[in-house]
Amino acid sequence: MAPHRRRFLRGAAGLLGAAALGGCDRLAETAFGRRTLKLGEDANLFVQRLLLTPQSLAREFPDSAISAYFKPNGTIDPSDEAYRALVADQFSGFTLAVDGLVEAPQALSLSDLRALPARTQITRHDCVEGWSSIGKWTGVPLSEILGRARLKPEARYVVFHCADTMEVAGGGLEEGGTPIRYYESIELTDAYHPQTILAYDMNGKALPVAHGAPLRLRLERQLGYKMAKYVMRVEVVASLARLGDGQGGYWEDRGYEWYAGI
Protein backbone atom coordinates (compact mmCIF):
# COMPACT_ATOMS: atom_id res chain seq x y z
CA MET A 1 0.00 0.00 0.00
CA ALA A 2 1.23 3.47 -0.81
CA PRO A 3 2.61 5.31 2.24
CA HIS A 4 0.13 8.21 2.04
CA ARG A 5 -2.82 5.81 1.98
CA ARG A 6 -1.53 3.94 4.98
CA ARG A 7 -0.92 7.22 6.87
CA PHE A 8 -4.49 8.21 6.07
CA LEU A 9 -5.90 4.94 7.36
CA ARG A 10 -3.72 5.01 10.45
CA GLY A 11 -4.78 8.58 11.17
CA ALA A 12 -8.42 7.60 11.00
CA ALA A 13 -7.78 4.60 13.22
CA GLY A 14 -5.91 6.81 15.68
CA LEU A 15 -8.86 9.13 15.97
CA LEU A 16 -11.18 6.22 16.57
CA GLY A 17 -8.77 4.69 19.08
CA ALA A 18 -8.45 7.99 20.90
CA ALA A 19 -12.21 8.18 21.07
CA ALA A 20 -12.27 4.73 22.60
CA LEU A 21 -9.73 5.75 25.23
CA GLY A 22 -11.16 9.15 25.88
CA GLY A 23 -14.31 8.05 27.62
CA CYS A 24 -15.66 5.40 25.29
CA ASP A 25 -17.52 3.74 28.14
CA ARG A 26 -19.26 6.98 29.04
CA LEU A 27 -19.97 7.81 25.42
CA ALA A 28 -21.31 4.33 24.72
CA GLU A 29 -23.80 4.66 27.56
CA THR A 30 -25.83 7.21 25.59
CA ALA A 31 -27.92 6.68 22.47
CA PHE A 32 -26.09 9.57 20.78
CA GLY A 33 -22.74 8.03 21.71
CA ARG A 34 -23.67 4.65 20.32
CA ARG A 35 -24.83 6.20 17.04
CA THR A 36 -21.63 8.26 16.82
CA LEU A 37 -19.36 5.27 17.45
CA LYS A 38 -21.28 3.21 14.93
CA LEU A 39 -20.95 5.94 12.29
CA GLY A 40 -17.20 6.06 12.87
CA GLU A 41 -16.92 2.30 12.59
CA ASP A 42 -18.96 2.21 9.38
CA ALA A 43 -16.80 5.00 7.90
CA ASN A 44 -13.62 3.14 8.82
CA LEU A 45 -14.87 -0.07 7.20
CA PHE A 46 -16.06 1.82 4.12
CA VAL A 47 -12.74 3.65 3.65
CA GLN A 48 -10.67 0.51 4.04
CA ARG A 49 -12.85 -1.54 1.73
CA LEU A 50 -12.71 1.34 -0.79
CA LEU A 51 -8.93 1.74 -0.77
CA LEU A 52 -7.78 -1.81 -0.20
CA THR A 53 -8.46 -5.00 -2.06
CA PRO A 54 -9.32 -8.07 0.03
CA GLN A 55 -5.78 -9.31 -0.63
CA SER A 56 -3.88 -6.07 0.17
CA LEU A 57 -1.19 -6.88 2.71
CA ALA A 58 -0.22 -5.06 5.86
CA ARG A 59 3.42 -3.97 5.77
CA GLU A 60 5.95 -6.67 6.64
CA PHE A 61 9.39 -5.98 8.10
CA PRO A 62 12.87 -7.56 8.14
CA ASP A 63 14.18 -9.49 11.16
CA SER A 64 16.26 -6.47 12.12
CA ALA A 65 13.07 -4.52 12.87
CA ILE A 66 11.74 -6.96 15.51
CA SER A 67 11.15 -5.12 18.78
CA ALA A 68 13.50 -5.94 21.63
CA TYR A 69 10.49 -5.89 23.94
CA PHE A 70 6.94 -6.67 22.82
CA LYS A 71 4.40 -5.57 25.39
CA PRO A 72 1.68 -8.20 25.93
CA ASN A 73 -1.81 -6.83 25.40
CA GLY A 74 -4.97 -7.79 27.29
CA THR A 75 -4.89 -10.82 29.58
CA ILE A 76 -1.36 -12.03 30.26
CA ASP A 77 -1.80 -15.02 32.60
CA PRO A 78 -5.29 -16.60 32.67
CA SER A 79 -6.18 -18.12 36.03
CA ASP A 80 -8.89 -20.41 34.66
CA GLU A 81 -8.42 -23.90 36.08
CA ALA A 82 -8.84 -25.70 32.74
CA TYR A 83 -6.32 -23.40 31.10
CA ARG A 84 -3.81 -23.79 33.95
CA ALA A 85 -4.05 -27.58 33.45
CA LEU A 86 -3.15 -27.13 29.78
CA VAL A 87 -0.18 -24.94 30.70
CA ALA A 88 1.04 -27.53 33.23
CA ASP A 89 0.85 -30.18 30.53
CA GLN A 90 2.66 -27.93 28.02
CA PHE A 91 -0.52 -27.89 25.94
CA SER A 92 -0.19 -31.57 24.96
CA GLY A 93 -3.93 -31.95 25.63
CA PHE A 94 -4.95 -28.84 23.70
CA THR A 95 -7.54 -29.25 20.97
CA LEU A 96 -8.90 -26.49 18.76
CA ALA A 97 -12.57 -27.04 17.99
CA VAL A 98 -13.91 -25.77 14.66
CA ASP A 99 -17.68 -25.94 14.35
CA GLY A 100 -20.86 -24.02 13.65
CA LEU A 101 -21.92 -23.58 10.03
CA VAL A 102 -19.44 -26.07 8.60
CA GLU A 103 -19.84 -29.35 6.78
CA ALA A 104 -16.87 -31.03 8.48
CA PRO A 105 -16.27 -29.97 12.12
CA GLN A 106 -12.63 -30.21 13.14
CA ALA A 107 -10.79 -31.08 16.34
CA LEU A 108 -7.13 -30.17 15.86
CA SER A 109 -4.26 -30.73 18.27
CA LEU A 110 -1.20 -28.51 18.24
CA SER A 111 0.62 -31.24 16.34
CA ASP A 112 -2.18 -31.29 13.78
CA LEU A 113 -1.97 -27.51 13.41
CA ARG A 114 1.81 -27.53 13.07
CA ALA A 115 1.53 -30.15 10.32
CA LEU A 116 -0.65 -27.86 8.20
CA PRO A 117 0.78 -25.30 5.74
CA ALA A 118 2.20 -22.37 7.71
CA ARG A 119 2.90 -18.69 7.15
CA THR A 120 5.54 -16.54 8.86
CA GLN A 121 5.17 -12.77 8.91
CA ILE A 122 6.94 -9.91 10.67
CA THR A 123 4.38 -7.23 11.35
CA ARG A 124 3.59 -4.32 13.60
CA HIS A 125 1.03 -4.70 16.37
CA ASP A 126 -0.88 -1.47 16.96
CA CYS A 127 -2.70 -1.29 20.29
CA VAL A 128 -5.74 0.89 20.89
CA GLU A 129 -3.82 2.22 23.91
CA GLY A 130 -1.40 3.96 21.53
CA TRP A 131 1.71 1.74 21.58
CA SER A 132 3.14 -0.44 18.80
CA SER A 133 5.61 -3.33 18.62
CA ILE A 134 6.98 -5.46 15.82
CA GLY A 135 7.02 -9.23 16.13
CA LYS A 136 7.54 -12.34 14.03
CA TRP A 137 4.58 -14.68 13.92
CA THR A 138 4.25 -18.20 12.53
CA GLY A 139 0.99 -20.09 12.30
CA VAL A 140 -1.56 -21.73 10.12
CA PRO A 141 -3.63 -19.51 7.80
CA LEU A 142 -7.21 -19.41 9.00
CA SER A 143 -8.28 -19.99 5.39
CA GLU A 144 -6.56 -23.39 5.54
CA ILE A 145 -8.63 -24.44 8.54
CA LEU A 146 -11.87 -23.06 7.12
CA GLY A 147 -11.18 -24.84 3.86
CA ARG A 148 -10.90 -28.15 5.66
CA ALA A 149 -14.10 -27.48 7.60
CA ARG A 150 -16.01 -26.49 4.42
CA LEU A 151 -18.32 -23.59 5.20
CA LYS A 152 -22.05 -23.81 4.64
CA PRO A 153 -23.61 -21.24 2.25
CA GLU A 154 -25.16 -19.18 5.06
CA ALA A 155 -21.79 -18.67 6.83
CA ARG A 156 -20.89 -15.00 7.27
CA TYR A 157 -18.72 -14.51 10.37
CA VAL A 158 -16.00 -16.36 12.26
CA VAL A 159 -16.15 -16.24 16.07
CA PHE A 160 -13.20 -16.93 18.37
CA HIS A 161 -13.95 -18.34 21.81
CA CYS A 162 -11.06 -17.98 24.23
CA ALA A 163 -9.87 -19.47 27.52
CA ASP A 164 -9.41 -16.30 29.57
CA THR A 165 -12.17 -15.12 31.89
CA MET A 166 -12.69 -11.38 31.71
CA GLU A 167 -15.40 -11.11 34.35
CA VAL A 168 -18.20 -13.08 35.96
CA ALA A 169 -21.79 -12.53 34.86
CA GLY A 170 -23.28 -9.94 37.19
CA GLY A 171 -20.02 -7.99 37.47
CA GLY A 172 -16.57 -8.39 38.94
CA LEU A 173 -14.61 -11.61 39.26
CA GLU A 174 -16.55 -13.23 42.09
CA GLU A 175 -16.30 -16.99 42.47
CA GLY A 176 -19.38 -19.12 41.82
CA GLY A 177 -20.77 -17.02 38.96
CA THR A 178 -20.82 -17.73 35.25
CA PRO A 179 -17.48 -16.73 33.73
CA ILE A 180 -17.50 -14.47 30.70
CA ARG A 181 -14.51 -15.48 28.64
CA TYR A 182 -13.03 -13.38 25.86
CA TYR A 183 -14.77 -13.59 22.52
CA GLU A 184 -14.18 -11.86 19.21
CA SER A 185 -15.40 -12.09 15.64
CA ILE A 186 -14.45 -11.13 12.09
CA GLU A 187 -16.16 -11.31 8.74
CA LEU A 188 -15.22 -13.79 6.04
CA THR A 189 -13.32 -11.18 3.96
CA ASP A 190 -10.80 -10.84 6.79
CA ALA A 191 -10.93 -14.53 7.71
CA TYR A 192 -9.64 -15.45 4.25
CA HIS A 193 -7.00 -12.70 4.09
CA PRO A 194 -3.55 -14.26 3.53
CA GLN A 195 -2.10 -12.62 6.68
CA THR A 196 -4.90 -13.85 8.94
CA ILE A 197 -3.29 -16.71 10.81
CA LEU A 198 -3.66 -18.63 14.04
CA ALA A 199 -0.16 -18.17 15.41
CA TYR A 200 1.59 -20.77 17.55
CA ASP A 201 5.12 -19.29 17.37
CA MET A 202 6.43 -15.83 18.18
CA ASN A 203 9.91 -14.67 17.23
CA GLY A 204 10.92 -18.23 16.36
CA LYS A 205 9.80 -19.82 19.63
CA ALA A 206 6.58 -21.35 20.94
CA LEU A 207 4.06 -18.64 21.74
CA PRO A 208 4.45 -17.56 25.40
CA VAL A 209 1.48 -17.58 27.77
CA ALA A 210 1.61 -13.79 28.05
CA HIS A 211 1.06 -13.52 24.31
CA GLY A 212 -1.79 -16.02 24.05
CA ALA A 213 -0.38 -19.57 24.08
CA PRO A 214 -0.96 -21.93 22.56
CA LEU A 215 -2.85 -20.15 19.80
CA ARG A 216 -3.75 -16.55 19.01
CA LEU A 217 -5.29 -14.78 16.10
CA ARG A 218 -3.13 -12.44 14.02
CA LEU A 219 -5.27 -10.02 12.01
CA GLU A 220 -2.70 -7.59 10.73
CA ARG A 221 -4.97 -4.95 9.23
CA GLN A 222 -6.82 -4.27 12.50
CA LEU A 223 -6.02 -3.07 16.02
CA GLY A 224 -4.64 -5.41 18.64
CA TYR A 225 -7.76 -6.09 20.67
CA LYS A 226 -9.24 -7.87 17.63
CA MET A 227 -6.44 -10.45 17.78
CA ALA A 228 -7.97 -12.90 20.24
CA LYS A 229 -5.53 -14.76 22.49
CA TYR A 230 -5.91 -18.24 24.07
CA VAL A 231 -8.17 -19.35 21.19
CA MET A 232 -9.96 -22.60 22.05
CA ARG A 233 -12.79 -22.72 19.56
CA VAL A 234 -13.51 -21.29 16.12
CA GLU A 235 -17.23 -21.05 15.39
CA VAL A 236 -18.71 -20.08 12.02
CA VAL A 237 -22.03 -18.23 12.26
CA ALA A 238 -24.53 -16.36 10.12
CA SER A 239 -25.20 -13.58 12.64
CA LEU A 240 -23.54 -12.01 15.68
CA ALA A 241 -26.85 -11.25 17.39
CA ARG A 242 -26.51 -14.12 19.88
CA LEU A 243 -22.85 -13.51 20.70
CA GLY A 244 -22.57 -11.68 24.02
CA ASP A 245 -24.63 -8.53 23.82
CA GLY A 246 -24.73 -8.72 20.04
CA GLN A 247 -21.95 -6.30 19.07
CA GLY A 248 -19.49 -8.98 17.96
CA GLY A 249 -16.88 -9.05 20.72
CA TYR A 250 -16.13 -8.62 24.41
CA TRP A 251 -14.82 -5.07 24.07
CA GLU A 252 -17.30 -4.23 21.33
CA ASP A 253 -20.10 -4.99 23.79
CA ARG A 254 -18.48 -2.32 25.98
CA GLY A 255 -18.27 0.40 23.33
CA TYR A 256 -15.28 -0.37 21.10
CA GLU A 257 -15.83 -0.52 17.38
CA TRP A 258 -16.27 -3.97 15.84
CA TYR A 259 -14.28 -3.06 12.73
CA ALA A 260 -10.93 -1.74 13.97
CA GLY A 261 -9.13 -1.33 10.66
CA ILE A 262 -5.78 0.47 10.38
Spatial strand sequence of the major β-sheet: 2-1-10-5-6
Instruction: Please tell me how large the radius of gyration is.
Output: 18 Å
Low-pLDDT runs of 5+ residues are: 1-25
* CATH fourth-tier homologous superfamily of the largest domain: Oxidoreductase, molybdopterin-binding domain
Which CATH architecture of the largest domain is right?
Answer: Alpha-Beta Complex
Organism: Methylobacterium durans
Domain Oxidoreductase molybdopterin-binding: 92-238
Protein name: Molybdopterin oxidoreductase
InterPro entries: OxRdtase_Mopterin-bd_dom (IPR000572), OxRdtase_Mopterin-bd_sf (IPR036374), TAT_signal (IPR006311)
What do you see in this structure?
This protein has 262 residues and is α+β, with helices and mostly antiparallel strands. The protein has 7 helices and 10 strands. Helices cover 27% and strands 26% of the residues. It is globular and about 45 Å long. InterPro entries: OxRdtase_Mopterin-bd_dom (IPR000572), OxRdtase_Mopterin-bd_sf (IPR036374), TAT_signal (IPR006311). Residues 92-238 form the Oxidoreductase molybdopterin-binding domain. This is Molybdopterin oxidoreductase.
